[in-house]
Amino acid sequence: MDNDRSSRQQELVKHEEKQARIDQFLGYYLDRLFADWCDQPEQRKITLIARSPASPVARALIANADDLRAAGSHLRLLFAKLEPREALGDWFDFALSCRESEAGAKLEIRHIANPAMIDAHEQLVLGVEMSWTGDAMRRDPLSRDTIEVYDPCCDRTARESNLSFAGIWERSRPVPVRDQARARGGASATSSSSDGAPTPPLPGASGKPAGTNAATRH
Domain for residue 214, yes or no? Predict the structure, then answer.
């Protein structure tokens, strides 16, 4: 039976408080994951749609990297922009650490190829019944207060959000996470290596959704 939608909470969140609020929501998920859901693989799946790796929702996730790795999480991330590179690099470092994860944590990243998808809303699904929805990706979450929706207990909402995610995922371009992680992992040692390969290029290197140009609206 589907969980009731009455758990949904709609709030106006100030831009400077966004990461902290999502971090609190994520902490509730992680507490439940370790306490009650550790033997349920579906609860370890996380999907994210975000404007960029610097979005507060993405920063909240990476801030909990140790717990996500220890839980054996399977993260699939969609970004409309692949900049700033420093924030994206944090995810490549996470992917590198997952290679040594006994819990089997995994990370996949894709770059949203369709510029029309910039109107889609940021969203996060944690397991099978927790979800969060933010503002449209064309708006900068770092500079705007936003109505956000938190739903801690509704598998129907989570399922619908994941259906939306799947539609965009199939039309998006894979980011070579393993290659980038290997390049970063060997960066400190390859200065003396004679066979170090160049870091593979990322799709949409300009940071704009693939297929956009200077005329793309803001």
Answer: no
